[in-house]
Amino acid sequence: MLAILACAFTSFSVAVAQQPAASAAQTKPANLPVPARSTPARSFLVVLDPAHGGSNNGAMLADGTPEKNYTLDLAVRLHVLLNARGISSILTRDTDATIDDDTRAETANRAQAAACVLLHATSTGSGVHLFTSSLPAPQSTSSDPRRAFLPWQTAQTRYVTRSLHLESDLNATLAAGHVPVLLDKTSLAPLDRLACPAVAVEVAPLDANTPVTDAAYRQRIAQALAAALAAWRDGWRTRP
Amino acid sequence: MIPRYQKVLLWLLLAGSVVLAAYLVHLRSRAEDQLSAVPAAAPMAAPVEAAPVQATLMIANDDNGSLAPVTRQLALPREKTTRAKALLNDLFDAYAEPGSPHPLAAVQAVNEVFLLPVPAASASQQNNANSNAQMAVINLNGAFVDRHPSGILVETLTLLSILGTLHANLPQIAEVRFLVDGHMKETLAGHVDLTRTYLTANDVPTVTSPPPAHPSAPASTESAP
């Protein structure tokens, strides 16, 4: 019995040790430098965060739909579209449950996501509003090992530059789909605590005749976001 | 027959009563003099009508997500805390007007503004050379917060409008914190964080007019952070 357990443990250890090397060998382009990453062989994973839920309705949209329902619907649509493109994604909630900001950030940070997209909706303004964290980017990039620990409240600080790249990809794809885009920065609790490239997407009505809850508009947004995340994946390993 | 010692005691008591009565009369007249002297000595400044001064309000626009400086002539108090409160309430009065680009409820927005010296450690961390830097603690009215529209953009613009207006008119305010009815509140209306300290130098946008279109996205607008 002990021999069987020892054999199984040895096989498992070898498999774990070989997996990153094999994966890196498969994905590393021949003539490109390997970006410095703490986990170079981790898979591309997107975290989708449908905002609000449960007792937290969020904003009340024009037709009386609570924001929490809209964001969950959009997240599920996006999840399906990403799966169709071969991109793994997880949702911080897939039911109408109350989840606090720390739990959402913890889910994303444990997953070591390549991109985190926070989904919101509003009846104010028009088009899609993209937000990155207003936290300042770090001034020093020293290799002090103590910097491996990130303050929870401001974990996004080290990812601000990559978040801006992600925002740029989302902006380009949405604009190509003739959706007006507004870029800004904000201080949002789960956004500031995320240790991944993160953008908050707030969907507003397209125009006076197309409310935020319009099914075709919603699908258009989901498709544009999925295309942008696919573009982000293509350049993910070569980005600084 | 009355004993002699009792007669002496009686005369002494009568004499003491006369002396105390005279002393009470003296005290009363002195108190009257003091009371009548108080109004003359009290410094009562004549009410002075504050002359209107030029103030800059950073007005938000929900349509393009911009902040634009609007100059107005406002009669503002000279004392800094009441001046800051009056400025902010004038700002929110502008948002309550019909046709406002950032419509908000017509409710008093700010209960109080407190100005405190910025802690030395905080000032050194921010390389803040201004030794007169102050932190403003803004106590928002709960009724105003309850009626504030919910959304990242609209809440962010309200916050930036407050920070920008304070920065433009009271540049010694380097940091801003928020309370709602005297208590800490996590968000303004479900989105924007109200628990952190905002730095007016970093958080206020430098672009103050409707921004140009994004170069890679012809159909988009961008509000520079």
List the helices and strands and how they pair.
The complex is a heterodimer of chains A (240) and B (225).
Chain A: H1 2-27, E1 45-50, H2 67-84, E2 88-91, H3 101-111, E3 115-121, E4 128-133, H4 160-176, E5 181-186, H5 189-192, E6 198-203, H6 215-234
Parallel strand pairs in A: 1-2, 1-3, 3-6, 4-5
Antiparallel strand pairs in A: 4-6
Helix pairs in contact in A: 2-6, 4-6
Chain B: H1 4-41, E1 53-61, E2 66-74, H2 80-96, E3 110-117, H3 120-125, E4 134-140, H4 142-146, H5 152-169, E5 173-180, E6 198-199, H6 200-203, E7 221-222
Parallel strand pairs in B: 4-5
Antiparallel strand pairs in B: 1-2, 3-4, 5-6
Helix pairs in contact in B: 2-5
Would you write up a description of this structure?
- The complex is a heterodimer of chains A (240) and B (225).
- Chain A has 240 residues and is α/β, with parallel strands linked by helices.
- Chain A has one domain: Zn-dependent exopeptidases (Aminopeptidase), CATH 3.40.630.40.
- In chain A, 40% of the residues lie in helices and 15% in strands.
- Chain A is built from six helices and six strands.
- In chain A, helix 2 links the parallel strand 1 and strand 2.
- The longest helix of chain A is centred in the N-terminal third of the chain and has 26 residues.
- Chain A starts with a helix and ends in a 6-residue tail after the last helix.
- The relative contact order of chain A is 0.17.
- The N terminus of chain A is likely disordered.
- Chain B is α+β, with helices and mostly antiparallel strands.
- Chain B has two domains: 44 residues; 151 residues, no CATH class.
- In chain B, 39% of the residues lie in helices and 20% in strands.
- In chain B, the strands form two sheets. Chain B has a four-stranded mixed sheet with strand order 3-4-5-6. Chain B has a two-stranded antiparallel sheet with strand order 1-2.
- In chain B, a hairpin with a 4-residue loop joins strand 1 and strand 2.
- In chain B, helix 2 packs across helix 5.
- The C terminus of chain B is likely disordered.
- The chains are: A alpha/beta (240), B alpha+beta (225).
- At the A-B interface, helix 4 and strand 5 of A face helix 5 and strand 7 of B.
